[in-house]
Automatic annotation (TrEMBL):
This is Putative glutamine amidotransferase domain-containing protein. The lineage of its organism: Bacteria, Bacillati, Actinomycetota, Actinomycetes, Kitasatosporales. Residues 3-247 form the Putative glutamine amidotransferase domain. It comes from Streptomyces hygroscopicus. Transmembrane segments: none annotated.
Length: 248
């Protein structure tokens, strides 16, 4: 059993309703973590979810806090949310360099998985911004300097290059189509296990005494349709395999 922290995979949406000369707004809180949480828990892993709005104030700040986990998953949560704790952003006081702490923790034996989304890798309009951080060197891929999203509204079929790799959890057969991903480039020395088109979908690498991995599409809609994240038995095998490989 691995202890897994999933940071991100939640959001707040606000709508404006205009009726003649009057208008009002409504807000909803949404989580996208449940398919991933269920998949990992079905394989016996202990999962803690840190929603996106709590990341700035509560993400682990040093190796001691990170040691409570075997694997950290960053999913659709930008670098600013990790870097800008309230005391730094709102009060102008020095705080913990949490991305540097995460890099050091991986180098000392931790496992890091980044899952794709509009605020992963470089992200929508470059706002995820991991390319400019110390975490970039930890990833098994190199990030683009511009908006890296590739939308596939008609669907794209993954190609598996390393079926027998343990990080894929023993999954066999064709994978369901995906509706988009973040474009990245493989880093020298990394293993690309699956692709979408000519780009990495799943890649893994060693980093110091630890390991890192990426899944460049999403773990929930819209890029991961229900046929992928709810109806496909291989979903739990792939993400379970990644977590188990990362935690050795």
């Amino acid at each position: 059993m691995s202890r897994v922290l999933i940071a991100g995979e939640s959001w707040i949406s606000q709508s404006t309703h205009i009726k003649g000369v009057d208008s009002f707004t409504t807000s909803t809180y949404v989580t996208g973590v449940e398919p991933l949480r269920r998949a990992l828990e079905s394989r016996g892993h202990q999962v803690v979810h840190l929603p996106a709005h709590l990341v700035p104030g509560q993400f682990p700040g040093d190796a001691g806090e990170l040691s409570a986990y075997d694997v950290v998953v960053l999913s659709d949560i930008g670098a600013n949310s990790l870097q800008l704790a309230p005391e730094v952003f709102e009060q102008g006081r020095p705080g913990a360099d949490r991305i540097a702490a995460l890099r050091g923790w991986v180098g000392d034996g931790g496992g890091l998985l980044m899952v794709g989304g509009y605020l992963s890798f470089t992200g929508f309009e470059g706002k995820a911004a991991y390319r400019n951080t110390a975490l970039h060197e930890v990833l098994p891929v190199e990030l683009l300097p511009e908006d890296d999203r590739v939308e596939l509204p008609a669907g794209g079929s993954p190609s598996v290059l390393a079926t027998g790799h343990p990080a894929l959890g023993g999954v066999t057969g064709a994978w369901p189509s995906l509706l988009g991903y973040n474009r990245v480039r493989p880093r020298p020395g990394a293993e690309v296990l699956a692709t979408l088109g000519d780009d990495p979908l799943v890649a893994v690498a060693e980093y110091g005494s630890g390991r890192s991995a990426v899944f460049t599409s999403d773990c929930s809609p819209h890029w991961a349709p229900t046929a992928f994240c709810e109806e496909w038995d291989g979903y739990a095998q792939v993400f379970g395999g990644l977590v188990e490989w990362l935690s050795r």
